[in-house]
Amino acid sequence: MTRYNVFVSHSMTQEDLGIIYQTKRDAECRGITCYVAERDPQFGKALSGKIENAIRSCDCCLVFLTHGGSSSAYVNQEIGFAKACGKLIIKVVENGVQVKGFDMDNEYLPLDRQNPAAAIFSLNDYLSARRDQKEKETQQRNAAGLFVVGAIAFHNWKSNSSPNSRIKERTKSREGTRQSFARSETPKSR
Q1: Which of 1, 36, 47, 145 is spaced 20 to 30 A from 9 at the CA atom?
Q2: Burial of 31 (0-12, 13-18, 19+ CB in 10 A)
């Protein structure tokens, strides 16, 4: 199965972490990998480098714009970096939070803090559909690659096993034998 990797951008406020971790658990039950930076300790390494690498390698960036997340410098920087990397940015926006910046016209998933399960369920359905689409595209690329390899192998086999090539090989073999025989019969000069 093809892996679908999601970078999760969020605030570190206590009221947001419960929603973030529930989203991660539910997504991973569906075979979707969610990268949450604080769950990946890399002691002695720069936090910014770790986050940049995770964004570069993800399939999409999931941003929780909550009351805490919309004002977080990290969340806004992660959005900018994901945009610069050409990543799909999926926003989950808490009711009452104003979407600002370059993506303010893009669709987003509303989050009702009183009923976060509805948003989490819809989000994971959407991520599952994207994972399935990636799987289908991967299978199509693999099938196309196998077809090309098969066509080349068939062409090589066909050109090496055609009746004309076998006749040419036998003729060369006979001519080589005749020449060897003719040389062995010629008198040697002293």
Answers
A1: 1
A2: middle
| CA end-to-end distance (rounded Å), the chain | 78
**Rg, C-alpha atoms of the chain:** 31
147, 117: one domain: no
190 in a structural domain: no
Residue type, 182: A
CA distance 58 to 64: 16
Reading across the β-sheet that carries 60-65, which strands appear in turn? 32-35, 4-9, 60-65, 88-94, 109-111
Which pLDDT tens digit goes with each residue over 49-81? 999 999 999 999 999 999 988 888 899 999 999
Q: Contact 124/32 with Cβ under 8 angstroms?
A: yes
